[in-house]
Amino acid sequence: MRFSIKQTGCGGERIGYLTGFIRSPGAEIETPTAALFTQGGSVVNLTAEVLSKVFSNTKLLWLPLSNSINLETGVKAQNDGVAKFAGLQGHVTCATLHSLSEDTPSGHFELDRAPLWTKNGKRMVSADRYMDVMEIFKPDIILAIADGRTSLNEGSKRISKAVCRSNSMLKTCVNRYMSSKELQKSSLIGVVVGAGNPKKCDESLRNILTHVDNLTGISLQGILDGPEESRDIDSETLKKLFEKVGEALPKDFVYILEGNWNPSIILTAVEHGWDLFDGSYPLKLTNTGVAMKLNFDVTKENDTLYLLDMVDERYKADLKPILEGCECLACKKHTRAYIRHLLNTREMLASVLLSIHNLHHFDQMFYHARQHIASNTFAVFKQHITKQCEMVKDFPPNRYKGSNGTNIPTENQAPNIKRRNL
Ligand SMILES: [Zn+2]
Q1: Could you tell me which residues belong to the region Disordered (predicted)?
Q2: Residue 173 marked ligand-binding
């Protein structure tokens, strides 16, 4: 895989292209962009056929091993890689150990093995075993196995071990990569860890630099130990971290940010040169019955919330689409009232329709971001989106889970989101 930068903006933001995929010749992904999150090899809530109607172009599929390791026997028997096995050939795959948006028990690491939390329990995975699975899954992009689930407030002893272990596992991944023709058809991504301790983070960055010839990019971990924490991190802390990592590593690397970050944080990362995101954010919204409706028109002031709580009573007889003017399949055919009904009666179609809209809309956010980078107006766009995010103070959407709170925000009202079950 090649990454070429087409244009840079006034800040660190840039438009790039991922091309030259050995297993998907002709595929081209324009960045910045988000992947589509998969489970069991498929895009969550969408069949391959529906996916082809939602997106006509090649997409990047995010493939956590934690929810796909059970495919191993079948993928090995077919011997054509996980994308073909799941009927998604033509799309590009990026495999990783687990998703930072999953809640998992902390710790359980051993000297040279990491825990893989699957629905059937814990499996301990060494770097060699991880690369064995990569040889079978044949993803286009491989994130190296790492101990990246430490928060910014983590104790220095834990961070120290995480960095040491990740450095050692990266060495094994690189050695395996260099000695396997099959693995060399993929691109290897190094994982930066230990963000909570500047000295240890520097050590992680220096280690990445020793493998620079075999890496195509980096992913930044070591910020979160689970999805709940992302709402507590302020953007200034993240900005400094994005700058530090960007200054230490080659500019022509692909920069990947994992985690369930809101649009404001995502665009802050884009502003600092980040290129790829894992796509867990729209999935999180869908899972909590929430639809996204950002206003992308920077010439229009926006005084409504960008999140719609679709199970709310107020949409019972609302015959408008989720978002007027939206070109997605859900908005073209279905009303808010119907989607609310499906959600309240626990129909599977509710998640399908919400996914179609949220994935389309999230993709549109990146489309507009690229347009503004090309026009050197990205700062205006970022400020416009950030203002909308600031209207929802109590975020991310996992706040929606919990008790049956009644004070759910309206479209036109400042939010006071309470927890509730969906
Ligand atoms: Zn829509």
Answers
A1: 398-422
A2: no
261-266: which pairs have CB atoms within 8 A and are 24 or more residues apart?
261/230, 261/396, 262/389, 262/392, 262/395, 262/396, 263/294, 263/306, 263/365, 263/385, 263/388, 263/389, 264/235, 264/382, 264/385, 264/386, 264/389, 264/390, 265/230, 265/235, 265/238, 266/34, 266/365
pTM above 0.70, yes or no: yes
**How does pLDDT run along the chain (422 residues), one tens digit per residue?**
999 999 999 889 999 999 999 999 999 999 999 999 999 999 999 999 999 999 999 999 999 999 999 999 999 999 999 999 999 999 999 999 998 878 888 778 888 899 999 988 999 999 999 999 999 999 999 999 999 988 888 899 999 999 999 999 999 999 999 999 999 999 999 999 999 999 999 999 999 999 999 999 999 998 987 666 556 688 899 999 999 999 999 999 999 999 989 999 999 999 999 999 999 999 999 999 999 999 999 999 877 889 999 999 999 999 999 999 999 999 999 999 999 999 999 999 999 999 999 999 999 999 999 999 999 999 999 999 999 998 886 544 443 443 333 333 334 433 333 333 22
Find the 360 Cα to ligand 1 centroid distance in Å: 7
> Which residue from 296, 294, 259, 256 is spatially nearest to 272, judged by alpha carbons?
256
- The CA 264 to ligand 1 mean position distance, Å, reads 20
What residue spans define the domains of the chain?
2-285, 290-392
**Any binding-site annotation on 94?**
no
Which CATH number describes the domain made up of 2-285?
3.20.20.105
Task: Give 314 Cα–ligand 1 centroid separation in angstroms.
Answer: 19
Whole-number Å distance, alpha carbon 107 to ligand 1 midpoint, is: 40
- Ligand 1 geometric centre to CA of 333 (Å): 9
How far does the centroid of ligand 1 lie from the alpha carbon of residue 280, in Å?
A: 18
- Is residue 328 a known part of a binding site? yes
Q: Is 326 among the annotated ligand-binding positions?
A: yes
